[in-house]
User: Fold this.
Amino acid sequence: MATLNKKPGVHIWVWEGRDRAGKTIKGEIRAESETVAKAQLRRQGVNVTKVSKRRVGFGQRITEKDVALFTRQLATMMRAGVPLLQAFDITAKGHSNAAFTRILLDVRGEVESGSNLADAFRKYPIYFDSLFCNLIAAGETGGVLDSLLDKLATYKEKIIAIKGKIKSAMIYPAAIIATAFVITAVILIYVIPAFKELFSSFGADLPAPTQVVIWLSDFFVKYWWIIFGLIGGAIAALIYSYKRSPAMQVGMDRLLLRVPIIGDVVRKATIARWARTLSTLFTAGVPLVEALDSVAGAAGNQVYADATKVIQSDVSSGSTLNASMQRVNLFPNMVLQMTSIGEESGSLDHMLDKVADFYEDEVDNAVASLSSLLEPMIMVILGVLIGGLVVAMYMPIFKMGQVVG
Assistant:
């Protein structure tokens, strides 16, 4: 699932110091670094004694759901005619996440002091991305802030829903595989050695499958800490590399798209997000070239993000959106046809919305089918794995019974 991507920007610094009269004062300030924060405070006549970055406490992590819930609440109140500042007071004080409440009150303070709402949100790029701020700015400029807040809330709710479906589709088989590995390791480390002691008293050659299982058990008992360490280290290194290496991101995302069954679900979900994002921005009146920049960041797959940048470059050079999409060779014919009809009829936003609806339904069906398909497959794999170990251990006993009989 899922938190928002961290981007460089301003931070909140908690400070303490003395004013010109020598009185101890404290507060919070936004700045890019501790040095900048101290410089700003000195210009205000504060003799700084202590500065530290404000940290969100345990259990107070701000998620996309927090942002989506706030957006929906703000849209509802503004549609009901509640003034903006009062709506901020209500949503901030009623929010269950204290860390997010502080941010909302800071944004409210910026607006009250004369700042635009979009500019106030831009001071928190970690939580309010460029797409969010662009839509807010378009709403303020066009005088339709309540309408665009409603569209933005709907967009975020749909994106969160489709992300959740993708996570469930990928976490389920991964969890089963991890469970199977742990169960197998426990059997090899604790159960098989007991059988080995029993077989040592037989004084006869053991069947080949039994010997293989005993060898595996000896290997696990001796090197289990290396095996688990290597697996954990490999996963950690993979995650670290993926987050910091664009080449790794492209490679992994391209590989994910090629994985049987799951790759099809990921592709459909990515196209749904792509179309939904572009439709929402286009509806708000954001120019196509500028909208594509936000679409690339919201694609959720680096292969499609890079392709979107190519499309943006082509469109800025005078090419049509449909022709540019054809050149990257990533979109199905249905998407290309709907885009072409939308461009020709002047209803691109509507057609993209229909594409997003269609592929969101496709993701629903694919995830349901995936779950029903994986369950029997996983049961068969677990049965063969665990059953194979059990049969291999009981083969000498069956053999001894036949000899005695």
Observations:
- The longest strand covers residues 11-18.
- The chain is about 75% helix and 5% strand.
- Confidence is low (pLDDT under 50) at residues 1-8.
- The first helix runs from residue 34 to 43.
